[in-house]
Amino acid sequence: MAKIGKDDFAKGFVPHHNHGSVDYTAVGAGHVHQCLDVTSPPIMTEDHNHIHYTEGYVVFENGHTHYYQAYSGPAIPVGNGMHVHYYDFYTTENDGHRHRVKGVDQPAPGDK
């Protein structure tokens, strides 16, 4: 079996892949945090799609940080044998506020 890299186009489902993302939280208490993320390998769903789990901390800002745990939405084909996932979650509340994080992760091989 040929090895597939993060930039390779592939038909079907690619096991053991993950996604990265670089995003910013929504503004809360007058500031934002950068969110650098790498997901878990795929988790198969009953409808033969897959999602990813992620957890971590946003980058320290304004004297504090926030923790998060979340699942992505299902795979969204974006053409050329790649797919992405939508995410929408909230961080923990720290320093009297929390932040929303939403967007799309980086494309990964496989159109399913």
Q: What multimeric state do the chains show?
A: single chain
Determine the mean pLDDT: 96
Whole-number radius of gyration?
Answer: 15 Å
How many DSSP-defined strands?
10
Helix content: under 10%
Q: Roughly what fraction of the amino acids lie in strands?
A: 35-45%
Largest sheet: 4 strands, antiparallel
Helix run count = 0
Rough outline: elongated
Structural class: mainly beta
Residue ranges: pLDDT <50 for 5 or more in a row? none
State the domain count. 1
Order of helices and strands: EEEEEEEEEE
Termini separation (Å)? Answer: 19 Å
Structure in words:
This protein is mostly beta strands. The protein has one domain (20-109). Helix content is 0%, strand content 40%. It is built from no helices and 10 strands. The strands form 4 sheets. Strands 7, 8, 9 and 10 form a 4-stranded antiparallel sheet that branches. Strands 1-2 form a two-stranded antiparallel sheet. The protein has a two-stranded antiparallel ribbon with strand order 3-4. A hairpin with a 5-residue loop joins β3 (43-44) and β4 (50-51). It is elongated and about 50 Å long.
